[in-house]
Recover the amino acids of this structure.
């Protein structure tokens, strides 16, 4: 059962736990405003802890690939107005991004696509017969975790190389040739890729070779790609963490300066090895999507949650600090999935004495500094 206490008492207790911790984890930040993310970076540096966001379990491989080979991309508005060929690869926006098809990619009328759906050709690459695949003009039903092979076969065919096999990734060479010709013949194509590409075998190498395919398609037509980001401000978390520390996620401050090494400093891996002794979870719910062993270790140690909702993570927290909801009960800044910054507006007052995520972290930093004598 929970006991209601004052903000000062709760913040003092949270500060005590974080200061005593040998390996504190600050995780989440993907469903809150950029201003709060900046404070999260500051707090993590003061504590010498681990700083991570939800990209480490979704589009982290995309960021690694982009670091290696760059990315030919644009804005959702550009796709809405110009794209006549849409590919969803390893993504099911009918369920995961229900407004995407109607606002930016498929059904919307654009400046150069006056007839909306009739002016666009939709291709879905997915091993499952998803609801998005069911409305597609072409469904490429590949074998699970064989995206890398298919993309490289497409690149080879695009360069005019004859392949001495009949089937790649469960798709016949003739069908792959037709697919490549379809991509070459469009006026403006866009590849939207999801976690089916980033979290299957080969991970960032899947994205790496997909980016190279798009780059090579630009020898024939105009083609771009964009990751289908999940939480509404996970792109903002990557932006803020990068311009504050130089790295987008999985950051370790234990040496007094930021270090980046996914796998070593990723939240899931640290929890699986039981190296975290206190966790501060901000605007995220790792208990819903982390491996069971990682969740058990998360709950085994003190847990602080800054979260406005009842979630499997927050209801198991030792301390809950309830914030105002960004974009509803307070203002802020967020980055769209295409990395366009948007201003979040306040539409109603927060209930009771709820503070913003930024203010909670700001006050927590003040208490931590005071207790550490800084």
């Amino acid at each position: 059962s929970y006991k209601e206490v004052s903000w000062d008492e709760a913040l003092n207790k949270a500060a005590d736990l974080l200061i005593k911790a040998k390996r504190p984890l600050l995780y989440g930040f993907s469903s809150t405003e950029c201003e709060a993310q900046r404070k999260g970076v500051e707090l993590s540096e003061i504590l010498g802890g681990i700083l991570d966001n939800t990209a480490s379990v979704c589009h982290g491989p995309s960021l690694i690939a982009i670091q290696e080979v760059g990315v030919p991309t644009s804005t959702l508005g550009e796709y809405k107005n110009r794209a006549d060929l849409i590919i969803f690869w390893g993504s099911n926006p009918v369920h995961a991004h229900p407004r995407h098809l109607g606002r930016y990619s498929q059904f919307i009328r654009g400046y150069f696509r006056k007839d909306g759906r009739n002016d666009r050709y939709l291709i879905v690459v997915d091993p499952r017969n998803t609801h998005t695949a069911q409305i597609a003009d072409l469904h490429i039903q590949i074998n699970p975790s064989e995206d890398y092979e298919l993309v490289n076969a497409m690149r080879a065919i695009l360069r005019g190389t004859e392949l001495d096999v009949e089937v790649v990734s469960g798709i016949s060479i003739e069908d792959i040739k037709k697919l490549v010709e379809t991509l070459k013949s469009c006026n403006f194509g866009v590849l939207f890729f999801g976690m089916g590409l980033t979290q299957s075998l080969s991970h960032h190498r899947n994205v790496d070779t997909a980016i190279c395919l798009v780059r090579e398609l630009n020898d024939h037509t105009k083609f771009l790609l964009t990751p289908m980001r999940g939480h509404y401000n996970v792109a903002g978390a990557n932006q803020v963490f990068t311009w504050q520390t130089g790295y987008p996620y999985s950051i370790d401050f234990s040496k007094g300066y930021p270090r980046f090494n996914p796998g070593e400093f990723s939240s899931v891996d640290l929890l699986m090895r039981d190296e975290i002794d206190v966790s501060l979870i901000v605007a995220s719910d790792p208990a819903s999507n982390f491996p069971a062993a990682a969740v058990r270790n998360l709950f085994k140690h003190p847990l602080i949650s800054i979260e406005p909702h009842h979630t499997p993570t927050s209801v198991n927290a030792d301390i809950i600090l309830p914030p105002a909801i960004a974009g509803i009960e307070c203002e802020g800044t967020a980055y769209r999935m295409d990395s366009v910054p948007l201003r979040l507006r306040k539409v109603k007052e927060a209930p009771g004495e709820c503070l913003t995520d930024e203010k909670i972290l700001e006050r927590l930093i003040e208490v931590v500094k005071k207790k550490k004598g800084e």
